[in-house]
Amino acid sequence: MHIFEGQARVPLKGWQQAAVAVGSALGALMNPARADLIAALGETTGKLAFQNLLDRMKKSHEGRIILQERPRVISSSVGHAWDLPANTFGAAYAKFMGSRNFSPDDRPPVRFMDTEELAYVATRAREIHDFWHVLFNLPTNMIGESALKVVEFQQLYLPMCLLSTIGGSVRMKAKQREYFFKYYFPWAIRAGMSCTDIMSVYYEKHFHEDLELVRNRWGILPAPDLKNLRPPSKSQ
User: Fold this and answer.
1) Radius of gyration of the chain, Cα coordinates, nearest whole angstrom
2) What is the per-residue pLDDT across 201-230, written as a single tens digit (0 to 9) for each?
3) Is the pTM of this model over 0.85?
4) Is 145 annotated as a binding residue?
5) In the chain, where are the structural domains located?
């Protein structure tokens, strides 16, 4: 059974796609917590990018396996990560999710892609986002999310990533913005250029491996450890 059977996909004409994109962009700027609006923006503005990602995955051995097996990052398939040794990638993912009370089942469904294959690529990019947080050692605050969007834009070429980075930096307080552009933005440029194709990694197959080992293998440059620096306060 195809994983998207029974899931609604909404075909859009050109003007409808533009209307959804504009409406989603405005809504997301006003309320960044609306994951459904951000998802709709990514789909309606990123169809060419998703097609390029699909083509790229087909050229990769591991990417082809992902496309054939279509793994889902949902509780029933990644729950074993909570039982893995502390040094492993899977345990780091479980700690990341548990400490934030996140569930892998909370991602909004893909609705606006033209084909089942493209819908899966969009779903995969959405569902492995938290793996990237773990690997790049990024928090889920505004600075961390904006930095990860810089990495994602270099890797995925999704317009939504660029728009999210711009929107995030605009919403930051002055000191936060200074902190972001001084430390995180330069790092994100280097990290996005140095790592492997992050869409063509079957992450779940590597849960049992040492976190630092997989980072090295995939050319992952973790975010700088700035614990000894005083971050800007929320009131600034």
Assistant:
1) 18
2) 999 999 999 999 999 999 999 998 766 555
3) no
4) yes
5) 47-218
